[in-house]
Amino acid sequence: MEHHPSRGRRAAARVLAATALAGTAACAAPASPGLPERDGADRTAELLVQVTSVHEETGMTLLEGPVFAPDGGLLVVDVTAPAGEPKVLRVDTGTREVEPVLAEGDGAYTSAQFSPADGRLYLTDFAGGRIDSVTAEGEDRTTFFSGEVDGAVMLPDDLAFDEAGNLYVTDSAGYDEPFWEARGRVVRIDGETAEATVLAGDLPAPNGISFTEDFTGLWVSQYGANRVDLLELDGEGTAVAAAHTAVHVDGGTSRVDSNAVDADGNLYQALHGRPGILVYSPLGEHLATVDVPEDAAGGLDSATNVAIRPGTTDAYMTVSGEDGGFVYSFDALAEGIRQSNGG
């Protein structure tokens, strides 16, 4: 059966919104799209551990939001986990043991990051249009933000914190039909008051968001356009001073998903529709491609996100498909920082 990653993405989104799968299943890996020419820095990721299996209730599993907790454990979210099953899980990268962290609630969490202000884990609930927070142990679940922003409820996908603890969130409105309406936004939420303001609008379903290594700008992955934009911020971080398209991705049937930035400012762009990561320099040069082993790619169709352990080059990416949800490891091009730890 032919695989259609864009249909798979729409099916996943419908699971989030209605807690039911429309029944779009994949039985073969997508052909490799026309990506930038490879070079000597390319690498093959190694399987660390299988974290989840496909859920009978939702017909799929989708791992996202890898982030290292203060105790060194790698936390991930399972976007399509049904009620009662773990929505946040902890992976011990040494022993490869997996344990549940949070199973309560109805959140369909798509990203996770620890706040530098209060040390809590913040989770974007794509289906519920809100942002929840818990302790690193998954306790004291509270809703930090919900409701409309300028008259419209968000579809919060990914988030990034500035150094003061303010949140910058991609609103992925427009990810589904009608496809050509650019209705997405980048929203800033004050870390103390939870007041939300729109930094940029009329965007083609923005997904990934990460600060540059010096916190002066935001890399925003546009899922609906297969490109990455750079939004340069003003000195207060409350407005966009300048913006331009920085990277065009020739993804073919795949689309840009979440992203991360290492200490050298390199951009790690994850893909939905292909289990791989593209790495670009701050100037947009394609530096490397990270793929899963060829013999594993048949049952995997997305590498949604990546985290690099701060202070090291130990990188981990969340990979999912009909075979289940997995964490793969590889060597990053530079050390991890806050910008490559969650979001």
TrEMBL record:
SMP-30/Gluconolactonase/LRE-like region domain location, by residue?
64-296
Q: Can the keyword Signal be found in this entry's annotation?
A: yes
- Name the source's superkingdom: Bacteria
| KW Signal (keyword) present | yes
- Extract the InterPro entries matched here: 6-blade_b-propeller_TolB-like, SGL, SMP-30/CGR1_Lactonase
Residue intervals passing through the bilayer = none
Signal peptide per UniProt: 1-28
Which keywords appear in this protein's UniProt record, sorted alphabetically?
A: Hydrolase, Signal
Molecular functions per Gene Ontology? hydrolase activity
A Pfam cross-reference name: SGL
Annotated family: Belongs to the SMP-30/CGR1 family.
Identification of the protein by name: Lactonase
Q: Lineage, please?
A: Bacteria, Bacillati, Actinomycetota, Actinomycetes, Streptosporangiales
